[in-house]
Amino acid sequence: MCGITGYIGTRDAWPILIEGLKRLEYRGYDSAGVALVKKGAISVYKAKGKVADLENSAADKDLSGTAGIAHTRWATHGEPNTVNAHPHLSPSGRLAIVHNGIIENYSTIKSRLQEEGYVFRSTTDTEVLVYLIEYLMQKQGKNLLEAVQSALREVIGAYAIALADRDDPDMLIAARKSSPLVIGIGDGEFYVASDVSPIAGYTDRVVYPEDEEIAVLRRGVPLKIVNLMNEECSHEVRPVPENIGLTGKEGFPHFMLKEIYEQPDCIVDCMRGRVDTSLGTVRLSAVTENAERLSTAKRFIIVACGTSWHAGLIGKQYLETFCRVPVEVAYASEFRYSNPVIDDSDVVIAISQSGETADTLAAIELAKSRGAFIYGICNVVGSSIARATDTGSYIHVGPEVGVASTKAFTGQVAVLLLLALNLAEVKGTMKPEAYHSTVKALLEIPDKMREVLKSDKGIAELSRTFTYAHNFIYLGRGFSYPVALEGALKLKEISYIHAEGYPAAEMKHGPIALIDTEMPVVFIATKNTMYEKILSNVQEIKARKGRVLAVVTSGDKVISAVADNVLDVPETLECLDPLLVSIPLQLLAYHIAVCKGKDVDRPRNLAKSVTVE
Length: 613
Known about the structure:
Layout: E1 3-8, H1 13-23, E2 31-38, E3 41-48, H2 51-57, E4 67-73, E5 88-89, E6 95-103, H3 106-115, H4 125-140, H5 144-154, E7 157-165, E8 171-177, E9 182-185, E10 190-193, E11 205-207, E12 213-218, E13 224-227, E14 238-239, H6 255-261, H7 263-271, E15 275-276, E16 281-282, H8 285-289, H9 291-295, E17 299-304, H10 306-323, E18 327-331, H11 332-335, E19 346-352, H12 358-369, E20 373-378, H13 384-388, E21 391-394, H14 407-427, H15 432-453, H16 456-463, E22 471-476, H17 481-495, E23 498-503, E24 520-524, H18 531-543, E25 547-553, H19 558-562, E26 565-569, H20 577-595
């Protein structure tokens, strides 16, 4: 959600900034802009639409300059248009700002400035901030750094900002609070970005400012970081992870399809160094180093949003089944406002693909303040959640570009399973034969995923028959109920077809009223302990002339004879079904969206990294 990039050094800034914006496109946006700084002038170029539209609109302009800031905007305050796009200029045009986040008290500040005679050009909260900064410079005689510090002490909300000054073209200023920001350090040059992807390839040294810290980036001068009270802050310079750069589509038509196909290798990478294939055991360093704290926890609370929340529902079943410990799963966005009962005997597991999800970060902060131990599960090395938690595990699935999460979901499920298995062994709550058989079955999952992917062509053909649909219902039970929720979410996200997931037994408590010949119903109906009950649910739908698409275990004869269409997955343990069943549901959503001509990788209104509430 929104992306910032900036550069100051000796190279031409425009190509670096544009490439940075392209690397941030996966975050989701609806307009883009660049400000180039030269002595006595700031040139601003903005466009509604994609970065390519910005490039086209500025093709005949003067794009020279060795310093600048740039932005991709996901509209919050004000509709997506060129006026509301970033960068925004101060009233005199001296300052330019880009901003990711929300200034919650912008209306109050704006009214005060309007009483001073200021006239605003846009309807954004960001423009209010740059007006306030210049006001403090003009009325109180502050320099830029002092004015930024004063302004940020006054504002309420979240921000990552970068500022340029036409009167001091050798300096950029960047600051953050509750929104991600990273500084890249080169040879006499600096880079600013919302995450490491725009910096990768230019330098291998980065610094992550903390909340309410300001980075002063002066050409040819060492990095200086101060807080809002002007106290200097020291930071470790960290390396850029080797695999952080975004790869291409590698022959696939969309990143989403590529990432679906990457899942077998991702699960292998997720297990590498954690599963001993010869002994059939699981070892997570986070569990080894915190065995006492984790094994004596009286309760686990999983906080997450969206797809990560669905993974958390599966993780709950793993931890309760294998570790015999109570687990709650909460939407991070609700958790922070629900005045939850938490104490130092609790462990909070925070799950986020990006590691930057604002609501999940806020939930972590609340839980830490009440003494809970925090275990993070995320994908992005060096992300805010990775730094904010007491311990945790990366899912190691590599960069995920498609906005609709696929391989991150199965990676999260795999890590939650590894965590539960390792902890169960420590606690002695799982019989050795069950433990070893589960590890053995997990090691077989990548090859079974490859078998599922062979059905891609058939699913593509089947998907053509569902483009007419306006609604879908997804049903599952046990470990597969959260997969039904996730399957429905995938379809909603990229095809814009309304879809809902339910526990299959809940169908009779309301949703069955929706069943008719126009309502496709997707059942997760693999061979498991509730197979007969799912069969009854399928028959209830067919009795009302509903169309049934069932995901079944290979060789199934019973449900296959009743359903209108079936998708096969290899047999595995019931607890591992989510890792296999999720793939045909991802492919179904993908191909329906393609048939409908939708932008699969960048669906409307969605952002890959939700960094504001």
